[in-house]
Each structure stands twice: as C-alpha cells, then as structure tokens.
C-alpha cells in the first residue's frame, strides 16, 4: 500500500468504528496526523482523495466533515476505493483495452479527418495547466472515444467505449494516488495526438499501447501490494 492508501485506510477505519460519524468534523490536521502516525502531507492527500469521492466535505475556512450520507451509502462510497483492490476483473478489461485500442488508434491515423485530429489537441488544451482528477478522467474518456470513432469501424468503436468505461474508477484512483499520473497521462495523450496528426499509424499504435499498459501495470502492482 502507498502512504496515501494507509492514510485513507486509517480515516476509513475511524468511520467504520463509529469514531467519526456522518456530519462530524475531523480533528485538526496536525492533531489527526500525530494521532494516526502519519505525515501531514499524506493525510492531506488522503483527505483530498476522499473529498473527490464525496466521503469527506472540505469547507474552506471551516474544516473537514464526514458527509451527511446514511451509513450504508457512506460504505458504498468507500467501496469505490477498494473495488479493484479486491477484484482483478478490471485487469481483464485493461488487457482487452491494450489489445483493441492500439489497433483502433492506428486505423484512426488513416481515416480520421485533419479537423477531428486537430480537435483532439483542442480537447487537451481545454484542460488547462492543473486539471482536477475528475476533469482529467472525463477528458480521457472523451479523447479515447473520439479516436475510436475516428477509426471508422462502428463495431470497434462500440467495443472500445464499452471496455474503456469499465476502467474509469481505476483510472480515477490512479490519478488520485500515483505521483505524476496526471502529467504522464497528458504527455502520452499529446504524443498520441501528434502521431495521428503526422499520419504515423504505427507510432500512434505504440503510444496507445504504452499509455494503456501504464495503467495496467500500476493496477497489477496495486493488487500485489494489497494481497
């Protein structure tokens, strides 16, 4: 487990044990970090992660609160964090992505219009300098959807969209917990777009393979670390 995962687990345990209830305010950051034996930085990252999935509510100038969800719904939200830690099905979807999407990307280099390829660059530009993880993942899904459509094969496009959507949670969690994941994703998307713009089908295929394999490798390691 990463340090951030340890911090998330510690906060989660406080909620499960009833020490923190929906609507409760978390102790001050330095006090909670000392109590849990965590650095303030790792605790801060854990709070940020849990706020993204609506387990915690960070109120500027007021403090951080457990959301007012019913306990059963709160535990469902926590399931978001651990679903792919406990089930390697997501790996099968990523393996399928690694086989299907590079082929669709290579086809798109031949069939996608220049305007649509330029639109991919505009899509990436729209994220700005420091996108949130949620913004990145939404942009990521749209980026890959457009390329699949650009392959000109409707069956292949439908397969890519179906398989890609099933890995959304894992991609979100990677963006939250893996250092530099956001910038790496943006860099690889740029490389794919530039290869498409240059009509370099095999280069685009290679970058798509590297891009998807990176997520797959991270999740494999995550599963190993949590066995």
From TrEMBL:
Keyword Mitochondrion annotated: no
Pfam families, A to Z: FCD (PF07729), GntR (PF00392)
Keyword match DNA-binding: yes
Highest taxon of the lineage: Bacteria
UniProt-recorded Gene Ontology molecular function terms: DNA binding; DNA-binding transcription factor activity
UniProt-listed CDD domains: WHTH_GntR (cd07377)
Keywords: DNA-binding, Transcription, Transcription regulation
Entries under PANTHER family matching the protein: TRANSCRIPTIONAL REGULATOR, GNTR FAMILY (PTHR43537), UXU OPERON TRANSCRIPTIONAL REGULATOR (PTHR43537:SF5)
Name recorded for this polypeptide: GntR family transcriptional regulator
Organism, as annotated: Prauserella muralis
């Amino acid at each position: 487990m990463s340090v951030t995962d340890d911090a998330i687990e510690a906060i989660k345990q406080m909620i499960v044990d009833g020490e923190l209830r929906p609507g409760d305010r978390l102790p001050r950051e330095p006090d909670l970090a000392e109590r849990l034996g965590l650095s303030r930085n790792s605790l801060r990252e854990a709070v940020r992660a849990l706020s993204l999935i609506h387990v915690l509510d960070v109120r500027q100038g007021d403090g951080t609160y457990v959301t007012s969800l019913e306990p059963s719904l709160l535990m469902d939200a926590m399931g978001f964090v651990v679903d792919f830690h406990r089930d390697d099905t997501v790996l099968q979807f990523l393996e399928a992505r690694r086989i299907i999407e590079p082929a669709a990307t290579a086809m798109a280099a031949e069939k996608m219009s220049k305007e649509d390829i330029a639109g991919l660059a505009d899509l990436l530009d729209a994220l700005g300098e420091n996108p949130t993880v949620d913004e990145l993942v939404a942009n990521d899904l749209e980026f890959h959807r457009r390329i699949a459509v650009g392959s000109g094969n409707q069956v292949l496009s439908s397969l890519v969209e179906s398989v890609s959507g099933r890995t959304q949670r894992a991609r979100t969690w990677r963006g939250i917990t893996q250092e530099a994941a956001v910038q790496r994703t943006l860099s690889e998307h740029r490389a794919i777009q530039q290869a498409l713009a240059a009509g370099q089908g095999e280069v685009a295929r290679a970058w798509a393979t590297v891009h998807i394999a990176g997520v797959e490798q991270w999740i494999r390691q995550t599963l190993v670390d949590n066995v």
